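User: For my dataset I need records formatted as: sequence, then structure tokens, nothing else. Please produce one.
Assistant:
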Amino acid sequence: MDETFSLRGKRILITGAASGMGRAFALHAAADGASVGLLDIDGDGLAGTVTDLAAGTKSVSVTVDLAQWEPTEAAVGEVIAGLGGLDVVTNVAGWDAPGVFWEQPLEHWRRLIDVNLWSALYVCRAALPSLIEQGSGVIVNVSSDAGRVGSKGETAYAAAKGGVMALTKSLARELAPYAIPVNCVCPGPTMTPLLEQEMRDNPKLIEKMIKAIPLRRVATADDQARAIAYLASDAANYLTGQLISVSGGLVMAD
């Protein structure tokens, strides 16, 4: 096995670890021998993820609202202290609630931008002093193909995710002198609790999605977790500022 693809021994911070892609990546990383710091606003879901980690995994979990700076700074500090440092930061936390743009309350927009963009900004800001001091580390952000091509009913969400893409590219330039790559996974339709709820609200949604996807299926959370794992591994250490669409071919963009 090529160990450059392994996460063994890495200390990884994972946001959104209570469910969906964040949980899937946490389980994947732990099974591969990583130590994990898990952040999420859902304490019960976070406890469930911790319970399901591979036996013997070193972990730190903190229930926190990542849309607030001071609690996020404290939570990241707790993870760094508990794991003895950080090698990888993964911003996976996200939230969406589709609707007609001009009918959604302004507070709804603010929450979409807080959870999807400000959380990544806050976590990066809190973690970077440690990474810069040690002169190494990796950041992997999770955006969405909605931010690349737009998405009907998800305008504010797409705007926030577009911000995550810009964050990735700009931070990659700023951190290149410190040998800290920054890359981004852009999922297409993925079977997470959010999509499952949308399917219950609109039973025909899944059929339309599958017809539009060249590989003829929506992604699983594990599909996205494996892409995050690649960018978090040493195998990707010459990639930076890159946006990788994981959408079964739905979005083929430069």
